[in-house]
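dumping this here before i forget
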Amino acid sequence: MNNKFQEDEITELKKSTSELKEAIVSIVSILNKHRHGKLYFGIKDDGTVIGQEFSGKTLRYISEVISNKIEPKIYPKISNVKIEDKDCILVEFEGEDVPYFADGRAYIRVSDRDQKLSVSEMRKIFLKKENESGSWDSRISNKTIEDVNEEILKDYIERANKAKRIPFQYTNKEDVLNKLGLLRDNKLLNAGKVLFCDNNNVELQMAIFATDTKTTFIDIDKVEGNIFDLIKIGQEYIRKNIIWNVKITDKREEYPEIPLDSIREAIINSYAHRLYQDPKGTEISIFKNKVEIYNPGTFPEQYTPEDYIQNRAHSVFRNPIIANILYKSNDTETYSSGIRRIYEECTENQVRVEFRKEKIGFTIIFYRKNYDKENEITKNVGVNVGVNVGVNSTQRKILELIEENQSITQKEIASKLKTTVRTIERNVNILKEKEILQRIGTDKAGYWKIIK
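structure:
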């Protein structure tokens, strides 16, 4: 038996044209994975060459079936080849217009087998195809220069000047955007849209869960805006809702259970490397035992997180313009690995961190090493021992502000805590339900009462 021929990810063997239907599936699978391949008729799947009888009509029939059964259409090269003195048929095919379908169904090649594509895998192929047609952030957006938030742009230039990474001062929006490479033919690029425009589809979802799973949530919120604002909001949300430990030496010092620089790095990376074609946004999930930051951007297929930790991988920029802008303001480093910095800082602070590749996206998980001590710590910090039992960090801060000013409005509380009014309203309602907080009088003329 001659095993010179064997099936692999780009090669399929069929004993005869009686398996043409299965051959169509294999062609689609290989195209969706590698965009080129070859298929033989006249060779068994164990590599045994048995030959294939054919005529010119047979070759035309194969070409016709492939044309009718595969969408988008492909035009393979079909030829007669001699293998071990036996006639066989070779079908060579290629195509860039993925995903391909056989009779309306999509498949993917896994080793030498054909598997149906799941919805998530289909979505991944579409997004990858879109991303490979030129970086998304370099395309013309649907926003104009007038849509740019000038205060955010000015603040950015000031920070970039301080970092000594740009050589010019702020003049006006058009001039600065041009110098930053965010305009083409006086039109704003997608990078400029998500970095400096408030009204866009870039979002951040945040939630606090009551247990270690996503079954019951204590707080949930979703905000939209420019990247710089969302980074601040996300960082502040986590900062307010994790445990702060107290260390007393010659003075009292408070430090977070998770390093804030690592949290900031993870959030920034989620916007620098995400797939903006995917409507799903960055997600922050705070559990009793961990904090997860999900980035809807696939991890580079050729690398693993360990490759970056061990400095064995090169930086792969899905959004090079966005990454460059963040570098100039010292928000991120262009040639250094954020994963490695997060890992090193967490290791130094004895915080366990996990980097998890998802089918669609990437998650960084910070484990809360002292979450089981939360009630004990909370009792020692705040307005009142009895009041603080069973409340989260946001609710505790609300109570502290109310104790300082019983007439404070929910809008004023939201401003001081740098969060949304919706979040404050939700937490206030929880405090009312727990009979910890009471509103006396009307919304306009009344005041708050903390029930001791």
